Protein backbone atom coordinates (compact mmCIF):
# COMPACT_ATOMS: atom_id res chain seq x y z
CA UNK A 1 0.00 0.00 0.00
CA UNK A 2 1.36 3.43 -0.87
CA UNK A 3 -0.15 6.60 0.53
CA UNK A 4 1.26 9.88 -0.72
CA UNK A 5 0.51 13.33 0.58
CA UNK A 6 -1.68 15.45 -1.74
CA UNK A 7 0.19 17.80 -4.07
CA UNK A 8 3.57 16.77 -2.68
CA UNK A 9 6.43 18.92 -3.99
CA UNK A 10 8.67 17.20 -6.58
CA UNK A 11 11.10 14.83 -4.92
CA UNK A 12 14.60 16.02 -4.19
CA UNK A 13 15.63 12.37 -4.10
CA UNK A 14 14.00 9.57 -6.10
CA UNK A 15 15.29 6.02 -5.92
CA UNK A 16 13.79 3.42 -8.25
CA UNK A 17 14.32 -0.33 -8.52
CA UNK A 18 17.41 -0.35 -6.31
CA UNK A 19 18.89 -3.83 -6.00
CA UNK A 20 21.98 -5.15 -4.25
CA UNK A 21 23.18 -8.64 -3.39
CA UNK A 22 26.08 -9.69 -1.18
CA UNK A 23 26.92 -13.16 -2.42
CA UNK A 24 23.66 -15.08 -2.09
CA UNK A 25 22.08 -12.53 0.26
CA UNK A 26 19.76 -10.24 -1.67
CA UNK A 27 19.85 -7.23 0.62
CA UNK A 28 17.71 -5.04 -1.69
CA UNK A 29 15.38 -6.51 -4.29
CA UNK A 30 14.22 -3.48 -6.26
CA UNK A 31 13.35 -0.73 -3.79
CA UNK A 32 11.67 2.60 -4.61
CA UNK A 33 12.03 5.52 -2.24
CA UNK A 34 11.16 9.20 -2.52
CA UNK A 35 12.08 12.18 -0.42
CA UNK A 36 10.65 15.69 -0.72
CA UNK A 37 12.23 18.92 0.59
CA UNK A 38 11.18 19.86 4.10
CA UNK A 39 10.05 16.39 5.16
CA UNK A 40 11.36 13.95 7.70
CA UNK A 41 10.96 10.55 6.14
CA UNK A 42 11.47 7.63 8.50
CA UNK A 43 12.94 4.41 7.16
CA UNK A 44 12.15 1.41 9.32
CA UNK A 45 12.34 -2.37 9.19
CA UNK A 46 13.62 -5.42 10.98
CA UNK A 47 17.32 -6.01 11.47
CA UNK A 48 18.66 -7.01 8.09
CA UNK A 49 15.70 -5.56 6.14
CA UNK A 50 18.08 -3.53 3.96
CA UNK A 51 17.99 -0.02 5.46
CA UNK A 52 21.73 0.43 5.86
CA UNK A 53 22.38 -1.08 2.43
CA UNK A 54 20.08 1.53 0.88
CA UNK A 55 21.88 4.25 2.78
CA UNK A 56 25.34 2.87 1.96
CA UNK A 57 24.44 2.94 -1.74
CA UNK A 58 23.21 6.54 -1.46
CA UNK A 59 26.46 7.40 0.29
CA UNK A 60 28.59 5.86 -2.47
CA UNK A 61 29.96 3.12 -0.17
CA UNK A 62 28.36 0.32 -2.20
CA UNK A 63 27.64 0.18 -5.93
CA UNK A 64 24.07 -0.98 -6.68
CA UNK A 65 23.51 -3.99 -8.93
CA UNK A 66 20.50 -2.29 -10.53
CA UNK A 67 18.30 0.76 -10.13
CA UNK A 68 18.47 4.49 -10.45
CA UNK A 69 19.04 7.40 -8.09
CA UNK A 70 17.89 10.88 -9.10
CA UNK A 71 18.80 14.05 -7.25
CA UNK A 72 16.56 16.97 -8.18
CA UNK A 73 15.45 14.92 -11.18
CA UNK A 74 18.98 14.29 -12.46
CA UNK A 75 20.33 10.70 -12.47
CA UNK A 76 23.43 10.38 -10.31
CA UNK A 77 25.81 7.59 -9.41
CA UNK A 78 28.04 8.18 -6.44
CA UNK A 79 31.27 6.26 -6.82
CA UNK A 80 32.84 7.54 -3.59
CA UNK A 81 31.52 8.92 -0.29
CA UNK A 82 32.96 12.32 -1.25
CA UNK A 83 30.65 12.47 -4.31
CA UNK A 84 27.51 12.27 -2.20
CA UNK A 85 28.74 14.94 0.20
CA UNK A 86 29.63 17.18 -2.77
CA UNK A 87 26.10 16.56 -4.09
CA UNK A 88 24.66 18.03 -0.88
CA UNK A 89 23.82 14.75 0.85
CA UNK A 90 25.02 14.45 4.45
CA UNK A 91 25.21 11.18 6.38
CA UNK A 92 25.49 10.06 9.95
CA UNK A 93 26.11 6.32 9.87
CA UNK A 94 25.44 3.87 12.70
CA UNK A 95 29.16 3.78 13.42
CA UNK A 96 30.60 7.08 12.23
CA UNK A 97 34.18 7.21 11.00
CA UNK A 98 36.67 9.41 12.84
CA UNK A 99 40.38 9.98 13.00
CA UNK A 100 40.93 8.94 16.64
CA UNK A 101 44.02 11.05 17.31
CA UNK A 102 42.65 14.26 15.88
CA UNK A 103 40.79 16.64 18.13
CA UNK A 104 37.02 16.88 18.38
CA UNK A 105 37.17 20.15 16.37
CA UNK A 106 39.35 18.66 13.65
CA UNK A 107 37.00 15.72 13.29
CA UNK A 108 34.04 18.08 13.27
CA UNK A 109 35.51 20.05 10.39
CA UNK A 110 37.01 17.08 8.55
CA UNK A 111 37.15 17.91 4.83
CA UNK A 112 35.88 21.49 5.30
CA UNK A 113 37.88 24.72 5.06
CA UNK A 114 39.01 26.20 8.38
CA UNK A 115 38.48 29.74 9.62
CA UNK A 116 41.71 31.58 8.89
CA UNK A 117 43.21 34.81 10.01
CA UNK A 118 44.69 37.35 7.65
CA UNK A 119 48.11 35.75 7.41
CA UNK A 120 46.43 32.51 6.37
CA UNK A 121 46.94 30.96 9.80
CA UNK A 122 44.14 28.78 11.12
CA UNK A 123 42.07 30.68 13.65
CA UNK A 124 41.88 27.89 16.22
CA UNK A 125 39.86 29.98 18.67
CA UNK A 126 37.17 30.48 16.05
CA UNK A 127 37.34 26.80 15.03
CA UNK A 128 36.91 25.57 18.60
CA UNK A 129 34.16 28.10 19.30
CA UNK A 130 32.25 26.97 16.21
CA UNK A 131 32.59 23.34 17.27
CA UNK A 132 31.72 24.00 20.93
CA UNK A 133 28.58 25.93 19.98
CA UNK A 134 27.43 23.32 17.47
CA UNK A 135 27.82 20.58 20.06
CA UNK A 136 26.12 22.63 22.76
CA UNK A 137 23.07 22.94 20.49
CA UNK A 138 22.93 19.15 20.68
CA UNK A 139 23.38 19.21 24.44
CA UNK A 140 26.99 18.04 24.43
CA UNK A 141 29.49 19.97 26.51
CA UNK A 142 33.04 18.77 25.84
CA UNK A 143 36.42 20.39 25.31
CA UNK A 144 36.76 20.56 21.49
CA UNK A 145 40.56 20.36 21.80
CA UNK A 146 40.45 16.82 23.22
CA UNK A 147 41.43 13.93 20.95
CA UNK A 148 38.15 12.41 19.86
CA UNK A 149 39.17 8.98 21.13
CA UNK A 150 38.54 10.30 24.66
CA UNK A 151 34.83 10.68 23.92
CA UNK A 152 32.26 7.95 24.56
CA UNK A 153 30.48 6.26 21.67
CA UNK A 154 27.41 8.41 22.09
CA UNK A 155 29.39 11.64 22.39
CA UNK A 156 31.17 10.77 19.14
CA UNK A 157 27.77 10.16 17.59
CA UNK A 158 26.77 13.72 18.49
CA UNK A 159 29.97 15.05 16.89
CA UNK A 160 29.04 13.14 13.73
CA UNK A 161 25.58 14.75 13.73
CA UNK A 162 27.07 18.23 14.26
CA UNK A 163 29.59 17.55 11.47
CA UNK A 164 26.89 16.52 9.02
CA UNK A 165 24.80 19.61 9.84
CA UNK A 166 27.87 21.87 9.51
CA UNK A 167 28.21 20.82 5.87
CA UNK A 168 24.80 22.43 5.24
CA UNK A 169 23.33 19.49 3.34
CA UNK A 170 20.15 19.61 1.24
CA UNK A 171 19.50 16.04 2.31
CA UNK A 172 20.51 14.64 5.68
CA UNK A 173 20.49 10.90 6.32
CA UNK A 174 20.58 9.79 9.96
CA UNK A 175 21.07 6.07 10.62
CA UNK A 176 20.20 5.06 14.22
CA UNK A 177 21.61 8.18 15.80
CA UNK A 178 19.65 8.02 19.02
CA UNK A 179 20.39 4.37 19.84
CA UNK A 180 22.26 5.15 23.06
CA UNK A 181 21.03 8.64 23.88
CA UNK A 182 19.03 9.41 26.99
CA UNK A 183 15.63 11.10 26.80
CA UNK A 184 16.71 14.76 27.20
CA UNK A 185 19.47 14.26 24.61
CA UNK A 186 16.99 12.67 22.22
CA UNK A 187 14.66 15.65 22.72
CA UNK A 188 17.45 18.12 21.87
CA UNK A 189 18.46 16.17 18.80
CA UNK A 190 14.91 15.81 17.54
CA UNK A 191 14.39 19.56 18.09
CA UNK A 192 17.47 20.30 16.00
CA UNK A 193 16.30 17.96 13.24
CA UNK A 194 12.85 19.56 13.19
CA UNK A 195 14.46 22.99 12.82
CA UNK A 196 16.49 21.75 9.86
CA UNK A 197 13.34 20.36 8.30
CA UNK A 198 11.59 23.72 8.68
CA UNK A 199 14.50 25.35 6.89
CA UNK A 200 13.81 23.06 3.91
CA UNK A 201 16.31 20.25 4.47
CA UNK A 202 14.97 16.81 3.52
CA UNK A 203 15.75 14.22 6.17
CA UNK A 204 15.89 10.43 6.07
CA UNK A 205 15.57 9.12 9.61
CA UNK A 206 16.35 5.50 10.43
CA UNK A 207 15.40 4.34 13.90
CA UNK A 208 14.11 1.32 15.73
CA UNK A 209 12.52 3.62 18.31
CA UNK A 210 9.09 3.99 16.78
CA UNK A 211 8.06 6.53 19.36
CA UNK A 212 10.60 8.99 17.88
CA UNK A 213 9.13 8.53 14.46
CA UNK A 214 5.77 9.66 15.75
CA UNK A 215 7.41 12.69 17.33
CA UNK A 216 9.10 14.03 14.20
CA UNK A 217 8.45 12.16 10.96
CA UNK A 218 5.96 13.13 8.25
CA UNK A 219 6.14 9.86 6.35
CA UNK A 220 7.45 6.41 7.03
CA UNK A 221 8.71 3.79 4.57
CA UNK A 222 8.87 0.21 5.78
CA UNK A 223 11.36 -2.26 4.30
CA UNK A 224 11.06 -5.99 4.81
CA UNK A 225 13.46 -8.60 3.39
CA UNK A 226 14.87 -6.16 0.86
CA UNK A 227 11.50 -4.94 -0.40
CA UNK A 228 9.50 -1.81 0.29
CA UNK A 229 6.25 -2.91 1.87
CA UNK A 230 4.70 0.49 2.59
CA UNK A 231 5.11 4.25 2.45
CA UNK A 232 2.61 5.93 4.75
CA UNK A 233 1.79 9.35 6.13
CA UNK A 234 2.56 9.19 9.86
CA UNK A 235 -0.46 11.26 10.92
CA UNK A 236 -3.22 8.88 11.91
CA UNK A 237 -1.00 5.81 12.29
CA UNK A 238 -0.44 3.97 15.55
CA UNK A 239 2.75 2.30 16.76
CA UNK A 240 0.99 -1.04 16.33
CA UNK A 241 0.23 -0.22 12.65
CA UNK A 242 3.88 0.44 11.95
CA UNK A 243 5.00 -2.59 13.99
CA UNK A 244 2.62 -4.78 11.97
CA UNK A 245 4.17 -3.62 8.69
CA UNK A 246 7.66 -4.17 10.07
CA UNK A 247 7.19 -7.74 11.27
CA UNK A 248 4.73 -8.68 8.54
CA UNK A 249 2.08 -10.10 10.86
CA UNK A 250 0.14 -9.11 13.94
CA UNK A 251 2.88 -7.75 16.14
CA UNK A 252 1.34 -9.23 19.27
CA UNK A 253 1.98 -7.57 22.56
CA UNK A 254 5.58 -6.59 21.97
CA UNK A 255 5.35 -3.80 24.47
CA UNK A 256 3.93 -5.84 27.28
CA UNK A 257 5.29 -5.26 30.70
CA UNK A 258 6.10 -8.46 32.54
CA UNK A 259 4.94 -8.59 36.10
CA UNK A 260 8.16 -8.72 38.01
CA UNK A 261 8.07 -9.24 41.73
CA UNK A 262 10.85 -7.92 43.91
CA UNK A 263 13.27 -10.67 44.88
CA UNK A 264 13.44 -11.34 48.63
CA UNK A 265 16.83 -10.28 49.83
CA UNK A 266 17.65 -12.56 52.80
CA UNK A 267 20.25 -14.66 51.06
CA UNK A 268 23.77 -13.42 50.43
CA UNK A 269 23.53 -11.19 47.38
CA UNK A 270 25.26 -12.35 44.24
CA UNK A 271 26.84 -8.91 43.93
CA UNK A 272 27.42 -6.51 46.79
CA UNK A 273 29.25 -3.27 46.21
CA UNK A 274 30.22 -0.86 48.98
CA UNK A 275 31.77 2.59 48.67
CA UNK A 276 32.90 2.03 45.09
CA UNK A 277 34.51 4.99 43.36
CA UNK A 278 37.09 6.12 40.86
CA UNK A 279 37.20 9.86 41.36
CA UNK A 280 34.20 10.64 39.17
CA UNK A 281 31.91 8.06 40.74
CA UNK A 282 31.91 7.94 44.50
CA UNK A 283 30.31 6.05 47.36
CA UNK A 284 28.46 3.58 45.14
CA UNK A 285 26.56 1.04 47.23
CA UNK A 286 24.43 -1.56 45.52
CA UNK A 287 23.35 -5.15 45.69
CA UNK A 288 22.01 -7.55 43.11
CA UNK A 289 20.52 -10.89 44.16
CA UNK A 290 20.86 -14.08 42.14
CA UNK A 291 17.98 -14.09 39.68
CA UNK A 292 17.39 -10.37 39.99
CA UNK A 293 17.40 -7.87 37.13
CA UNK A 294 18.47 -4.45 38.34
CA UNK A 295 18.46 -1.41 36.07
CA UNK A 296 20.74 1.62 36.06
CA UNK A 297 19.15 4.87 34.91
CA UNK A 298 20.81 8.24 34.54
CA UNK A 299 20.83 11.28 32.32
CA UNK A 300 23.57 11.95 29.76
CA UNK A 301 27.03 11.07 30.97
CA UNK A 302 25.79 9.96 34.39
CA UNK A 303 28.44 7.26 34.73
CA UNK A 304 26.25 4.22 33.98
CA UNK A 305 28.76 2.77 31.54
CA UNK A 306 31.69 3.64 33.81
CA UNK A 307 30.11 1.81 36.69
CA UNK A 308 29.47 -1.28 34.59
CA UNK A 309 33.01 -1.16 33.24
CA UNK A 310 34.41 -0.96 36.77
CA UNK A 311 32.32 -3.92 37.86
CA UNK A 312 33.31 -5.87 34.73
CA UNK A 313 37.07 -5.36 35.02
CA UNK A 314 37.33 -2.92 32.11
CA UNK A 315 38.08 0.14 34.24
CA UNK A 316 39.95 0.49 37.53
CA UNK A 317 38.10 1.25 40.76
CA UNK A 318 40.16 3.20 43.21
CA UNK A 319 37.92 2.87 46.24
CA UNK A 320 35.44 0.46 47.65
CA UNK A 321 34.76 -3.25 47.81
CA UNK A 322 33.13 -5.73 45.47
CA UNK A 323 31.81 -9.02 46.88
CA UNK A 324 30.63 -11.88 44.71
CA UNK A 325 28.49 -14.37 46.61
CA UNK A 326 29.91 -12.85 49.79
CA UNK A 327 33.54 -13.28 48.76
CA UNK A 328 35.66 -10.14 48.25
CA UNK A 329 37.06 -10.05 44.76
CA UNK A 330 39.13 -7.84 42.58
CA UNK A 331 39.92 -8.15 38.93
CA UNK A 332 42.28 -6.27 36.69
CA UNK A 333 40.78 -7.08 33.34
CA UNK A 334 37.59 -8.28 31.70
CA UNK A 335 39.30 -11.65 31.24
CA UNK A 336 39.95 -11.80 35.00
CA UNK A 337 36.31 -10.93 35.67
CA UNK A 338 35.10 -13.52 33.18
CA UNK A 339 37.15 -16.20 34.93
CA UNK A 340 35.03 -15.43 38.00
CA UNK A 341 31.79 -15.55 36.04
CA UNK A 342 31.31 -11.82 35.54
CA UNK A 343 30.55 -10.87 31.95
CA UNK A 344 30.44 -7.33 30.61
CA UNK A 345 28.49 -6.66 27.40
CA UNK A 346 29.50 -3.18 26.27
CA UNK A 347 27.48 -0.88 24.04
CA UNK A 348 30.39 -0.26 21.71
CA UNK A 349 30.24 -3.47 19.69
CA UNK A 350 32.61 -2.09 17.09
CA UNK A 351 35.63 -1.54 19.32
CA UNK A 352 35.23 -4.17 22.00
CA UNK A 353 32.51 -6.35 20.59
CA UNK A 354 33.77 -8.68 17.94
CA UNK A 355 36.75 -9.90 15.96
CA UNK A 356 36.29 -9.25 12.27
CA UNK A 357 38.64 -11.98 11.11
CA UNK A 358 36.74 -14.75 12.93
CA UNK A 359 33.50 -16.37 11.70
CA UNK A 360 30.27 -15.73 13.56
CA UNK A 361 30.42 -19.01 15.50
CA UNK A 362 33.87 -18.27 16.90
CA UNK A 363 32.73 -14.80 17.86
CA UNK A 364 29.90 -16.39 19.83
CA UNK A 365 32.22 -18.74 21.72
CA UNK A 366 35.10 -16.24 21.92
CA UNK A 367 34.95 -15.67 25.69
CA UNK A 368 35.01 -19.41 26.46
CA UNK A 369 38.16 -20.86 24.85
CA UNK A 370 38.38 -23.68 27.42
CA UNK A 371 34.78 -24.84 27.42
CA UNK A 372 35.10 -26.88 24.30
CA UNK A 373 38.44 -28.51 24.96
CA UNK A 374 38.75 -31.98 26.38
CA UNK A 375 42.22 -32.89 27.67
CA UNK A 376 43.58 -30.08 25.52
CA UNK A 377 41.77 -31.22 22.36
CA UNK A 378 39.29 -28.74 20.97
CA UNK A 379 35.88 -30.09 20.01
CA UNK A 380 35.28 -27.64 17.19
CA UNK A 381 32.13 -29.39 16.00
CA UNK A 382 30.46 -29.03 19.38
CA UNK A 383 31.68 -25.43 19.65
CA UNK A 384 30.22 -24.59 16.25
CA UNK A 385 26.96 -26.45 17.01
CA UNK A 386 26.42 -24.67 20.33
CA UNK A 387 27.17 -21.30 18.78
CA UNK A 388 24.72 -22.01 15.94
CA UNK A 389 22.04 -23.08 18.45
CA UNK A 390 22.45 -19.91 20.53
CA UNK A 391 22.42 -17.67 17.43
CA UNK A 392 19.32 -19.42 16.17
CA UNK A 393 17.48 -19.05 19.49
CA UNK A 394 18.16 -15.33 19.30
CA UNK A 395 16.96 -15.19 15.69
CA UNK A 396 20.25 -13.90 14.28
CA UNK A 397 19.64 -13.36 10.58
CA UNK A 398 22.80 -14.56 8.83
CA UNK A 399 23.89 -16.16 5.56
CA UNK A 400 25.55 -18.97 7.58
CA UNK A 401 27.17 -19.42 10.99
CA UNK A 402 30.52 -19.57 9.13
CA UNK A 403 30.08 -16.09 7.61
CA UNK A 404 32.07 -13.11 8.82
CA UNK A 405 30.55 -10.76 11.39
CA UNK A 406 30.82 -7.99 8.81
CA UNK A 407 28.20 -9.81 6.71
CA UNK A 408 25.61 -9.12 9.44
CA UNK A 409 23.45 -6.04 9.73
CA UNK A 410 24.12 -3.86 12.79
CA UNK A 411 21.29 -5.28 14.88
CA UNK A 412 22.19 -8.85 14.00
CA UNK A 413 25.77 -8.24 15.11
CA UNK A 414 24.36 -7.09 18.43
CA UNK A 415 22.28 -10.26 18.74
CA UNK A 416 25.23 -12.49 17.79
CA UNK A 417 27.30 -10.89 20.53
CA UNK A 418 24.44 -11.41 22.95
CA UNK A 419 24.38 -15.10 22.02
CA UNK A 420 27.72 -15.48 23.85
CA UNK A 421 26.18 -15.09 27.22
CA UNK A 422 23.42 -17.57 26.54
CA UNK A 423 25.99 -20.36 26.29
CA UNK A 424 28.59 -19.42 28.91
CA UNK A 425 29.01 -20.08 32.65
CA UNK A 426 28.07 -16.63 33.94
CA UNK A 427 27.11 -15.62 37.48
CA UNK A 428 26.73 -11.90 36.94
CA UNK A 429 25.84 -10.29 33.63
CA UNK A 430 26.53 -6.58 33.14
CA UNK A 431 24.61 -5.25 30.16
CA UNK A 432 25.23 -1.83 28.68
CA UNK A 433 22.49 -0.82 26.22
CA UNK A 434 21.67 -4.45 25.37
CA UNK A 435 19.26 -3.65 22.56
CA UNK A 436 21.25 -0.87 20.90
CA UNK A 437 20.16 -0.91 17.25
CA UNK A 438 17.93 -3.98 17.63
CA UNK A 439 14.49 -4.11 15.96
CA UNK A 440 11.31 -4.31 18.00
CA UNK A 441 10.62 -7.99 17.38
CA UNK A 442 14.16 -8.94 18.37
CA UNK A 443 13.98 -6.71 21.42
CA UNK A 444 11.15 -8.84 22.71
CA UNK A 445 13.32 -11.94 22.09
CA UNK A 446 16.26 -10.41 23.93
CA UNK A 447 14.02 -9.46 26.86
CA UNK A 448 12.78 -13.04 27.05
CA UNK A 449 16.35 -14.34 26.98
CA UNK A 450 17.39 -11.92 29.73
CA UNK A 451 14.42 -13.02 31.86
CA UNK A 452 15.34 -16.64 31.15
CA UNK A 453 18.93 -16.05 32.26
CA UNK A 454 17.70 -14.42 35.45
CA UNK A 455 15.34 -17.35 36.05
CA UNK A 456 18.43 -19.60 35.86
CA UNK A 457 19.85 -17.63 38.79
CA UNK A 458 22.11 -15.23 36.95
CA UNK A 459 22.21 -11.76 38.48
CA UNK A 460 21.77 -9.02 35.91
CA UNK A 461 22.69 -5.35 36.08
CA UNK A 462 21.51 -3.46 33.03
CA UNK A 463 22.15 0.14 31.97
CA UNK A 464 19.77 1.52 29.39
CA UNK A 465 18.87 4.89 27.99
CA UNK A 466 15.53 3.42 26.92
CA UNK A 467 13.38 3.83 29.95
CA UNK A 468 10.69 1.51 28.54
CA UNK A 469 13.36 -1.16 28.51
CA UNK A 470 14.04 -0.72 32.22
CA UNK A 471 10.29 -0.68 32.84
CA UNK A 472 9.78 -3.92 30.92
CA UNK A 473 12.71 -5.81 32.42
CA UNK A 474 13.70 -4.76 35.89
CA UNK A 475 12.83 -5.80 39.43
CA UNK A 476 14.52 -2.64 40.67
CA UNK A 477 15.94 0.47 39.01
CA UNK A 478 18.78 2.46 40.57
CA UNK A 479 19.01 6.16 39.75
CA UNK A 480 22.53 7.37 39.13
CA UNK A 481 23.06 11.06 39.58
CA UNK A 482 25.95 13.35 40.53
CA UNK A 483 28.33 10.40 40.47
CA UNK A 484 26.42 8.27 42.93
CA UNK A 485 23.25 6.22 43.34
CA UNK A 486 20.79 8.41 45.10
CA UNK A 487 17.44 6.64 44.82
CA UNK A 488 15.77 3.49 43.61
CA UNK A 489 12.40 2.38 42.28
CA UNK A 490 11.04 -1.12 42.70
CA UNK A 491 8.33 -3.35 41.25
CA UNK A 492 5.22 -1.60 39.95
CA UNK A 493 6.72 1.81 40.80
CA UNK A 494 9.07 1.41 37.83
CA UNK A 495 7.52 3.37 35.00
CA UNK A 496 9.17 5.40 32.28
CA UNK A 497 7.49 8.57 33.54
CA UNK A 498 8.46 8.00 37.13
CA UNK A 499 12.10 7.28 36.30
CA UNK A 500 12.31 10.42 34.17
CA UNK A 501 10.47 12.51 36.73
CA UNK A 502 12.84 11.38 39.49
CA UNK A 503 15.93 11.97 37.41
CA UNK A 504 14.82 15.43 36.32
CA UNK A 505 13.54 16.39 39.77
CA UNK A 506 16.90 15.51 41.20
CA UNK A 507 18.75 17.83 38.77
N1 LIG B 1 29.04 -6.36 3.60
C1 LIG B 1 28.12 -7.32 3.60
N2 LIG B 1 28.42 -8.59 3.23
C2 LIG B 1 27.48 -9.55 3.23
N3 LIG B 1 26.18 -9.37 3.59
C3 LIG B 1 25.83 -8.14 3.96
C4 LIG B 1 26.77 -7.05 4.00
N4 LIG B 1 26.12 -5.94 4.42
C5 LIG B 1 24.83 -6.31 4.65
N5 LIG B 1 24.66 -7.62 4.38
C6 LIG B 1 23.40 -8.37 4.48
O1 LIG B 1 22.39 -7.63 3.80
C7 LIG B 1 21.16 -7.69 4.51
C8 LIG B 1 20.66 -6.27 4.77
O2 LIG B 1 21.52 -5.67 5.75
P1 LIG B 1 21.38 -4.13 6.21
O3 LIG B 1 22.62 -3.80 6.99
O4 LIG B 1 21.05 -3.30 5.04
O5 LIG B 1 20.10 -4.24 7.18
P2 LIG B 1 19.44 -3.12 8.11
O6 LIG B 1 18.01 -3.03 7.72
O7 LIG B 1 20.23 -1.87 8.06
O8 LIG B 1 19.54 -3.80 9.54
P3 LIG B 1 19.83 -3.17 11.03
O9 LIG B 1 18.54 -2.65 11.53
O10 LIG B 1 20.25 -4.40 11.79
O11 LIG B 1 20.94 -2.16 10.91
C9 LIG B 1 21.41 -8.49 5.76
O12 LIG B 1 20.96 -9.81 5.55
C10 LIG B 1 22.91 -8.47 5.92
O13 LIG B 1 23.36 -9.65 6.56
From TrEMBL:
Q: What positions does the domain ABC transporter occupy?
A: 13-250, 255-507
CDD domains under this entry?
A: ABC_Carb_Monos_I, ABC_Carb_Monos_II
Q: Which UniProt keywords apply?
A: ATP-binding, Cell membrane, Membrane, Nucleotide-binding, Repeat, Sugar transport, Translocase, Transport
Molecular function as annotated in GO: ATP binding
Task: Kindly name one Pfam family recorded for this protein.
Answer: ABC_tran
- Domain of life here? Bacteria
Question: What name does UniProt use for this protein?
Answer: Sugar ABC transporter ATP-binding protein
What's the source species for this entry? Marinibaculum pumilum
